[in-house]
């Protein structure tokens, strides 16, 4: 299909790669342009393939995550990265979000759901698993402990920008945030872009993680 979203998949799990390849093949809006078990091979092919979205397995040592994302972004700065999360890997997804990926999706999602996530991503959306959102909220609760109080900051984030970040942390899409706040989708996108600049990040995931660290967003 012309204008199909071109994907590269990097996942060490053979069963996961096979399942996702089959999922992608069932939707004409998606095209699996390349698939690898090894990051070494993926980097060799990245500039040649130039995918629209890079799908990556979450199961990578935390210390490697930031370097992997940094290297990908140095090669293709505008490439969006989505993390594929298996049950039990939700904690690993937090490191990817902090490193600046565009969001996370479940390994079990079907072809229609995957296409919806990717189309949403194209319009500035932020795919987020509810289980990962719950872990983010746990981090907020932990940051309320007295020993973390000195780390609080605002970075110039407005109340409305904080409201949007809080909703993203809860797993809301941009559209859901706009409906709940009673503002346009464009306004929500503007709030997010302003938050990027103020928090010195380049993705919704990194913005949410930074806002949690600074205690800008809470449970309310």
As a percent range, the share of helical residues equals 40-55%
CA gyration radius, whole angstroms: 17 Å
- Average pLDDT reading: 84
Low-confidence stretches: 145-152
Which structural category fits the helices and strands?
alpha/beta
What is the approximate shape? Answer: globular
Order of helices and strands: EHEHEHEHEHHHHHH
Strand order across the largest sheet: 2-1-3-4-5
Largest sheet: 5 strands, parallel
Distance between the termini: 44 Å
The count of β-strands is 5
**Beta-strand percentage?**
5-15%
Could you characterize the architecture of this molecule?
The chain is built from ten helices and five strands, in the order βαβαβαβαβαααααα. With 220 residues, it is α/β, with parallel strands linked by helices. The radius of gyration is 17 Å and the shape is globular. The chain starts with a strand and ends in a 7-residue tail after the last helix.
Helix-strand layout with pairing:
Blueprint: E1 5-10, H1 14-25, E2 30-36, H2 39-49, E3 53-57, H3 62-75, E4 80-85, H4 90-99, E5 103-106, H5 111-122, H6 130-143, H7 159-169, H8 174-181, H9 185-199, H10 204-213
Parallel strand pairs: 1-2, 1-3, 3-4, 4-5
């Amino acid at each position: 299909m012309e204008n199909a979203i071109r994907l590269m998949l990097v996942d060490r799990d053979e069963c996961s790669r096979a399942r996702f390849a089959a999922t992608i093949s069932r939707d004409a809006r998606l095209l699996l342009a390349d698939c690898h078990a090894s990051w070494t091979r993926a980097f060799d092919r990245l500039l040649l393939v130039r995918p629209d979205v890079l799908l990556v397995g979450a199961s990578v040592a935390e210390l490697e995550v930031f370097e992997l994302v940094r290297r990908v972004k140095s090669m293709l700065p505008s490439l969006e990265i989505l993390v594929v999360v298996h049950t039990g890997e939700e904690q690993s997804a937090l490191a990817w979000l902090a490193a600046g990926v565009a969001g996370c999706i479940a390994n079990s999602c079907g072809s229609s759901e995957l296409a919806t996530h990717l189309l949403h991503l194209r319009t500035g959306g932020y795919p987020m698993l509810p289980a990962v959102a719950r872990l983010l909220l746990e981090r907020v609760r932990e940051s309320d402990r007295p020993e973390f109080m000195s780390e609080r900051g605002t970075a110039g984030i407005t109340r409305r920008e904080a409201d949007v970040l809080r909703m993203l942390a809860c797993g809301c899409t941009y559209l859901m945030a706009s409906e709940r706040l009673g503002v346009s989708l464009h306004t929500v996108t503007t709030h997010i872009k302003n938050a990027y600049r103020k928090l010195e990040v380049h993705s919704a995931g990194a913005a949410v993680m930074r806002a949690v660290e600074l205690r800008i967003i809470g449970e309310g």
